[in-house]
Amino acid sequence: MKQNYSSIVILTGAGISAESGLSTFRSENGLWNHHRVEDVATIEAFQRNPEYVHEFYNELKPELLKAKPNPAHLAITKLQNEYPACVSIITQNVDTLHEKAKSHNIYHIHGQINQAVCLNCGQILETWGDVSTETVCPHCAVAGMMKPNIVFFGENLLFMDKVEKLLSTCDLFLSVGTSGVVFPAAAFVQTAKLYGAETFEFNLEKTSNNFYFDHHIFGKAGETLPKFVDDLLATKSGQL
Ligand code: NAD
User: Fold this and answer.
1) Long-range contacts of range 130-137, CB-CB < 8 Å, 24 or more positions apart?
2) Which of 21, 22, 121, 152 could make an S-S bridge to 17, C-beta 3.0–4.6 Å?
3) Residues with beta carbon inside 6 Å of ligand 1?
4) Residue 76 — very low, low, confident or very high, per pLDDT cuts 50/70/90?
């Protein structure tokens, strides 16, 4: 770890929210367990059966609404508040635990569970309530055009212009709790590394796409990330 970083990018995945009680994608009781990805997370599924897809995301909302941020989310907020660098969060998570931890500069590239987007006017509706094929858009007043603001397989990721800029200018890149098999997010480390960033992976285990990481820190993110942040803050105050 070097002394001074000016731009830090933190990519987070489902693993950072595991200690908040939210299942990861590929765990045995994963978020999508009992549902095939093809039925609830593709644009074709939504076009085929929007009622079913709305119902799936409506049913997920209460669990994600009541989840609380864990020490890993809080450590990122501490870093943002106390380290003199621009710290940005690119999250694949659709939960809002970074917001609940009072972080800022958060880019939800896969969307958010508490939002719906109107396919008629493009405006976002923020709601933890149910959304259905009958919901009326509060902006354009057209009914039946709301889609969960979740990026389905087959759709473009959100905020990619900003993400590309952040990746090509950061000097420290951290990947926390992501399996590295969902592209293009899995390739973000490669971009950051090619542009000269130092790269760290925080995971329970080595992931398959680990070639571009300079360092691997194994263990629960709720334990490893707070320690890492404290060490980084100590370099700032000259204690290390
Ligand atoms: P993933 O489930 O594919 O991988 C999670 C990774 O986190 C694994 O490599 C696992 O070893 C690691 N992990 C598990 N517990 C950990 C812990 N306590 N500390 C550190 N690492 C831990 O998740 P992904 O790569 O983010 O991709 C899944 C997709 O599913 C995401 O794009 C997301 O949109 C969606 N998803 C979101 C949520 C959420 O919002 N909380 C939850 C599940 C899935």
Assistant:
1) 130/54, 130/58, 130/61, 131/54, 131/57, 131/58, 132/51, 132/54, 132/58, 133/50, 133/51, 133/54
2) 22
3) 13-15, 17-19, 22, 24-26, 31, 92-95, 110, 177-179, 182, 202-205, 207, 220-221
4) very high
